[in-house]
UniProtKB/TrEMBL annotation:
CDD domains to which the protein is assigned, alphabetical: DEXQc_UvrD (cd17932)
Organism of origin: Flammeovirga yaeyamensis
Residue sites binding ATP per the record: A24, C25, P26, G27, S28, G29, K30, T31
InterPro entries (UniProt xref): DExx_box_DNA_helicase_dom_sf (IPR013986), DNA_helicase_UvrD/REP (IPR000212), P-loop_NTPase (IPR027417), UvrD-like_ATP-bd (IPR014016)
Keyword Nucleotide-binding carried by entry: yes
Entry keywords, A to Z: ATP-binding, Helicase, Hydrolase, Nucleotide-binding
GO molecular function, one term: 3'-5' DNA helicase activity
Organism lineage string: Bacteria, Pseudomonadati, Bacteroidota, Cytophagia, Cytophagales
UniProt KW Kinase keyword: no
Listed transmembrane segments: none
Listed name of the protein: UvrD-helicase domain-containing protein
GO CC list: cytosol
């Protein structure tokens, strides 16, 4: 039985049937609780019940991980919907209820990040705002801008009015319209509550104010039929300068209007050796003593800090550390290289691939595919790019289900007129494998063959034509952009979807909630960690400690930290080591 693998504190949370806040330290089993809560609730549901469990995660990667872990437990994931709050809003609020809002009634397009960034750059120039000036683009729950600097308001008006005129929505408008729909029509919340028995919010400490509002509309209008569990750790709140708010227990009770809400915590850390925990407790903001339950002897750990190498030596040094760990028997998928800023992922990955040609790397933080997962063709493309392995069956079946639903929504007709259309769709997709070595050509031919097998003439469905154009345009723009430098061949496209395909290269935000035997983290410099945005607009001391806390607490056994020399500000001033890291007195290992 699944629940046997929980300790008594974890079991209490899983068996509770109240609204609940779970805050606990890294490695204490919060994700394990979420997985088991889903499995437990599904086991209690009657098979004829049409209800589902909703899990809101911080990243798509975290959501995929939940699906994978449920699959591994043998839990059927068709009754679970997991994704980011943006995907949830799109799928469950905007798509079905767009007709209720004047702004969306006559159609809309989701704009992608590339469009947003070039539009923002253009408008900043027009409004004499510096390229690097950070403007808060968020919209509050009452529809007002979060930005308090009045000189930026004309710029924001220009940006948002432009989107509205062209019937486009970005991520902020997506939340804004969703919140507006729920506020105006409580019946929508009530229907959602009828579908979702539980809402599990992972990493709640990084939730935006308007996102709390969306969740609370659903819970408050649920006639006590739905519950919410907020799961997180305030010490890991690394999104504050970008709008994350870690509400406390009292605030949450008010937010969802439930004075009986429970608050629980978990003790113990099942992930890391005590020596690793003692090291990162330097960056902890509460007094809590974290006890390791991981059975990893301190003698087997290695913690190093290198502050003497130059930035030019970084690839060689990281390659040396990787080789050292591989020689010590650490598997590739248990090693993670954390980059200080996402745009560095591509260049370091390329250099490491050259230096260690035999080693596999998983740099899926940057994919050529559109990040707009709600795009119909993104979903179809994902099926063509993943292998039909037995362990992937349940996930792929669910994707097929989504494609069929979306097709119906956008065309008003069934994709396949047969019982179990998902099975048939998968069978057709699995049988198509054009002999094209270039990724774009491969996908284009897959789509053509699929449409012909299904007897679908796309010219009758303008929405699908335009979403196809957006999908391919995004890929092409990414492939042409030197910052990304992503490979163009079919095999590499497929690799982006392969699980555990090697050493993970990502940012600290990208691997939230994950764990590795060895973590190698470089660029630990003031200006990178924390980023300049935090320094100018946030609380740099708190951001600095929290980032270090999250980085170091990913490691089970080995932690290799690097604060290289030679990196400069735009004005040519040398960046120094992150102050909180520099101040730690610790008996580091030499490697
Ligand atoms: N009761 C338990 N017995 C054995 N191992 C456990 C138990 N609970 C959790 N673990 C293991 O401890 C590790 C950390 O758990 P998990 O990832 O759920 O922690 P977390 O609290 O979500 O951490 P973070 O805050 O860093 O995301 C995982 O490998 C998990 O399988």
């Amino acid at each position: 039985m699944i629940l046997d693998e929980l300790n008594s504190e974890q079991l209490e949370v899983v068996q509770s049937n109240r609204n609940l806040l779970l805050t606990a330290c890294p490695g204490s089993g919060k994700t394990r609780v979420i997985i088991n809560k889903i499995a437990h609730e599904l086991s209690l549901m009657k098979s004829e019940s049409k209800r589902k469990i909703l899990t809101l995660t911080f990243t798509n990667r975290a959501s995929d991980e939940i699906t994978r872990r449920l699959n591994r437990l043998g839990v059927l994931t068709s009754e679970v919907w997991s994704g980011t709050i943006h995907s949830f809003c799109m799928e469950w609020i905007i798509k079905p209820y767009a007709g209720y809002l004047d702004e969306l009634r006559n159609g809309f397009t989701i704009v992608d990040e590339k469009y947003i960034s070039s539009r923002i750059t253009e408008l900043k120039e027009e409004h004499n705002i510096g390229f690097f000036d950070n403007v808060n683009m968020k919209i509050e729950r009452n529809g007002e801008y979060s930005c308090t600097n009045v000189s930026y308001i004309p710029f924001l008006d220009n940006y948002y009015n432009g989107l509205k005129e062209s019937k486009m929505i970005d991520f902020e408008l997506l939340l804004h319209y969703s919140n507006k729909l729920l506020a105006r029509y409580p019946k929508i919340s009530n229907s959602l509550a009828k579908i979702f028995k539980y809402i599990l919010v992972d990493e709640f400490q990084d939730t935006q104010d308007i996102q709390y509002s969306i969740i609370s509309h659903i819970i408050k209008n649920s006639d006590d039929n739905s519950n919410v569990i907020f799961v997180g750790d305030i010490d890991q709140a690394i999104y504050t300068s970008l709008g994350g708010v870690a509400m406390n227990f009292e605030e949450l009770k008010v937010e969802i209007d439930d004075s009986n809400m429970e608050s629980k915590t978990l003790t113990g850390n099942y992930r890391s050796a005590q020596r690793i925990i003692d090291f990162y407790s330097h960056f902890q903001s509460n007094e809590l003593q974290i006890q390791s339950e991981a059975n990893i002897p301190d003698e087997s750990t290695l913690i190093s800090l290198n502050r003497n190498i130059s930035k030019e030596q970084i690839p060689n040094e990281i390659a040396r550390l990787i080789q050292f760990n591989l020689n010590n028997g650490i598997p590739e998928s248990e090693i993670c290289v954390l980059v200080p800023q996402w745009w560095l992922i591509t260049s370091i990955t390329r250099r490491l691939r050259q230096l260690l040609p035999e080693v596999n790397f998983d740099a899926s933080g940057i994919t050529p595919m559109s990040q707009i997962r709600e795009n119909f063709w993104y979903k179809v493309g994902r099926l063509f790019l993943t292998e039909p392995l037995p362990k992937m069956y349940s996930a792929r079946y669910k994707w097929a289900e989504e494609i069929i639903e979306l097709f119906k929504l956008q065309t008003n007709r069934d994709m396949l007129d047969t019982p179990k259309p998902e099975k048939i769709l998968l069978r057709i997709i699995n049988s198509i494998n054009p002999n094209k070595t270039e990724g774009i050509e491969y996908l284009a031919e897959c789509f053509d063959e699929l449409l012909s097998e299904l007897n679908i003439d796309l010219s009758f469905f303008p929405d699908l034509v335009s979403s196809k154009e957006i999908y391919f345009e995004t890929i092409e723009t990414r492939l042409q952009d030197e910052t990304y430098d992503v490979p163009t061949d079919t095999e590499s496209f497929k690799k982006f979807y392969r699980e555990n395909s090697g050493i993970v290269i990502n940012t600290c935000v990208g691997v939230k909630g994950e764990e590795f035997e060895t973590v190698i983290s470089y660029g630990l410099l003031y200006g990178y960690v924390p980023h300049w945005n935090e320094i100018y607009n946030g609380n740099p001391d708190s951001a600095s400690k929290k980032l270090l806390y999250v980085i170091c607490s990913r490691a089970k056994r080995n932690l290799h930290l690097i604060a290289e020399t030679g990196r400069q500000t735009r004005r040519g001033v040398e960046l120094g080591i992150n102050r909180h890291l520099g101040e730690v007195e610790f008996d580091y290992d030499d490697i």
